[in-house]
Amino acid sequence: MSEAELYTEYKGIYLPKHLHPPESLKFLEEFTFRHDDIIVVTYPKSGTTWMQEIVPLIQSEGDMASVLTIPNWDRMPWLEEYRAMLLNLDQRPSPRLFASHFHYSMMPESFFRVKPKVIYVMRNPKDVFTSSFHFCGMASFLVKPGTVDEFLEKFLSGKVMLGSWFDHVKGWLNAEEQGRVMYISYEEMILDLNDSVSRIARFMGKSLSEEVTKKIADRCTFKSMKQNKMSNYSLVPQEVFDQKKSEFLRKGIAGDWKNLFTETQMETFDAVYKEKMKEVKFRFIWD
Ligand code: PPS
C-alpha cells in the first residue's frame, strides 16, 4: 500500500494512520506536562525500546516488576500514539515516564512552557536506515521499503514515517531547554552500558549503587531483552508485526549498515549527510 493509504501528514511529517488517529494527535496537543516528567525522544529505530527498559528500571532502582509485567508501550507510552489516551496518564505518580518520536517543532505548547526532562537518543543514521528498512518490511502499517535504492531515496528526502532524520536530530540538538535535555547515543550504550545507565540515572536525579547499576545493565542487554515478552513485541499479533520476516529485536549492533549498503549507496548517503549536517557543531561518536 502507498503513503497516501497508510500515512497521514501532520505538520508536514508522515505518520502511520494506524498508530495516530486524529484524536490522539489532539490529545497530545492538549496534554499537560509536569516539570518532573521524563520523556525519551528518538527518531524511530534509534533505541526507544532499549530506553523503555532502562529508564523504568532506574526509576524503580532495579525492581524488575514493571519490566516483567507491563508491555513497554504501556510502561513508557508514546504520547502521540492512540494508547496514550487510554492510560489515565494524569493519574500516574511523578515522575511520569514517556516516549515520543516527535520532532522538537512538533511538541505541544505545554512542553515549551513546563520544560519536562528529555533524554534524546541518537543512532548512526546508516544503522537507523538499516533497522528501518527491515522494520518496514515486517510492520503491516508501514509502506513497504522496496529496494534499498528506493528506500534510500525516500529516507534521505524525509519521505518516510516521522520525516527527515536530519531535521529530527538538528531540531533536538538546537532545543532551547539545554539544561533539561540529555543527549546520548545508541553506540555509547553499546560500548559501555553500565556507564550509560549510570549517566542516565544521574540525569534522572537517582543515585544508584554500583551493584544496582550493574543489575540494570545486565537486565537490559540485547540477549536478555529478546527473552522478555513484555519488551520483544511477541505480544503483537503476527498480522501487525510479522517477526518471521524480521524480528523486532533484530541484531542490536552498531555497523550493520555495512551488510546492506553497496559502495555507491554509502557514498550517496555520506554526501547527503555531509551537506545536511555541515552546520552542526555536535560531535557524533560515529563521525
Ligand atoms: S522503534 O520502532 O522506533 O520503537 O524502534 P527502536 O526501539 O527505537 O529501535 C529498534 C532497534 O533497537 C535495537 N535494540 C537494541 N540494541 C541493543 N541492545 C538492546 N538491548 C536493544 N533493544 C533494542 C533493536 O534490535 C533495533 O535495532 P536493529 O538494528 O534492527 O537490531
Describe this structure in words.
The chain has 287 residues and is α/β, with parallel strands linked by helices. The chain has one domain: Rossmann fold. Helix content is 41%, strand content 10%. A four-stranded parallel beta sheet has the order 4-3-5-6, with helices on both faces. A two-stranded antiparallel ribbon has the order 1-2. A hairpin with a 2-residue loop joins strand 1 (7-10) and strand 2. 36% of the residues are buried. Residues 42, 44-50, 127, 131, 134, 220-222, 225, 249-252, 256 line the site of 3'-phosphate-adenosine-5'-phosphate sulfate.
Give a brief outline of the structure.
With 287 residues, this protein is of the alpha/beta class. The protein has helices at 3-6, 22-29, 48-59, 65-69, 72-75, 109-114, 125-138, 148-156, 165-173, 186-191, 193-203, 210-219, 222-226, 263-276; strands at 7-10, 13-16, 38-42, 97-100, 117-122, 181-185.
